[in-house]
Specification:
Helices cover 17% and strands 26% of the residues. A hairpin with a 6-residue loop joins strand 14 and strand 15.
Length: 305
Amino acid sequence: MTAAAVHIEITPDEEGRRLDAALGARPEVGSRAAAQRMIDAGRVTVDGRRRSKGHRVHAGNRVVVEAAPPASPVDEGASLAPFAVAYEDRHLIVVDKPAGVVVHPARGHASGTLVQALAGRAAGGDDPWRPGVVHRLDRDTSGLLVVAKSDAVHRDLQALLRARGIRREYRALVEGRPESRSGTIDAPLGRDRERRTVVSTRTDRPRSARTHFLQLEPLVRTTLLEVWLETGRTHQIRAHLAAIGHPVVGDPVYGSARPSLGLARQFLHAARLAFHHPATGEAVDVGSELPADLAEALAWAREER
């Protein structure tokens, strides 16, 4: 799937099937999960138009799957993404990703991604263009994510994730102060009906989403939260906190477009990953301190009157 686009014509037997199911059954694609990732990445068109995973196909539809971006930099001079290693063994690596780094190649980001910087150290999964990736962080969210080094470990980590066996904790500075000291946001998310580039609770295709939070430090205008995920939808934390009226400070998409506390991005940091190692059974518990820009913004927030 990396060398050239794949062209598929829907057969009468596939009439009425979901797009992801029809694609996933094709040997050129390999699995429904792979098809969903391709659709999410914007690589699939039906008769020249991008469609959702649940779009119902019809006999004669011409489906094109665009070639995946290369899994290594486009040219040898392309700079590799910076990252730090928080934990590593022969099975997996926990990466501490700085803000501004895209996890894997996608439309508009063909090079300079994290998986390209991890070439030769990460492996596993259906898609060669994002080897070893188990979960992602937004480009402007910093912090920890775990990457596999083999197909077996990738499968085990994905199973752990589905079973809520990976604790993913974040630090988020939000506007205002939630009414309760702790809480759970249980609100399905999907592509917004009007703003198609964001997700929200105002959607025609809701998917279950649960986010938990705890107030760590209430401040004058903002509140520092510990947030942890039960599900992992795109932009889940940002969308959920905005939905309860407390968007993440500095978030230009789900919050205010005005700069705040000197930030050039949202105040969201993946601060802790904890899980039982899929190969050894031992506990892995890794932390990441706030990066300098967020630490400085928090200091400013503490001085606000």
